[in-house]
Amino acid sequence: MDHRVKFDPANHFQTLFQLHGSVWSSVLPFCIANVANLYAVAYVKTNLFGSEEDPLVLGISLDDFQSTISIVISFLAVTRLGIAVDAYLRQRAAAQTMIRACRSLIFHSVAFTRHDKSETAKKWRLDIAS
Fold first, then answer.
1. What is the pLDDT of residue 13?
2. For the segment 96-118, what is each residue's pLDDT rounded down to a tens digit?
3. Helices 62-112 and 119-129 meet at what angle, rounded to 10?
4. Residue 55: which residues within 8 A CB-CB, separation 6 or more?
5. How far apart are CA 104 and CA 113, in angstroms?
6. Angle 8-11-16 (CA atoms, 0-180°, nearest 5)?
7. Residues 105 and 129 in one domain
8. Domains: count for the chain
9. What is the mean pLDDT of residues 53-58?
10. Most exposed among 15, 92, 115, 126, judged by the fewest C-beta atoms under 10 Å?
């Protein structure tokens, strides 16, 4: 079964709502849970607590909101930086492995052809090393 996302430029809704190759099946339960929680909070706020004269305040001030959002954005920025540094270190390790393998290839080619003193062999060893 093909699980890739198929894109039809004429029908964007089909692409958005297809199940294979998308994250709908893992994200939709969380969306439903968030809507249910929001509905429950709104119901409790309007029907069980407070009245028209004395409403229950469930909000936060703008300063609290800004400090909370700045913490979230900082966390996301640090996480993204950590991912980038990890990728850099993996690529650096792969480059070191490649350099070690090339150095080993040069050493072995020189060692295995050390008895051949001809100009062709010297040129071949120089080509391998460069």
1. 74
2. 999 999 999 988 888 888 888 88
3. 170
4. 45
5. 14
6. 85
7. yes
8. 2
9. 59
10. 115
- Residue 77's pLDDT is what? 93
What dihedral angle (degrees, nearest 10) is formed by the CA atoms of 109, 112, 113, 115?
150
Residues 51 and 90 in one domain: no
pLDDT digits (tens, 9 = 90+) for 19-35: 666 677 788 889 899 99
In this structure, are residues 100 and 116 in contact, taking their beta carbons and an 8 Å threshold? Answer: no
User: What is the span of the domain harbouring residue 124?
Assistant: 61-130
Name the residue type at position 57: V
**C-alpha dihedral (25, 31, 36, 39), degrees to nearest 10:** -150
pTM for this one?
Answer: 0.46
| 16 falls within a domain | no
**In terms of domains, do 54 and 106 share one?**
no
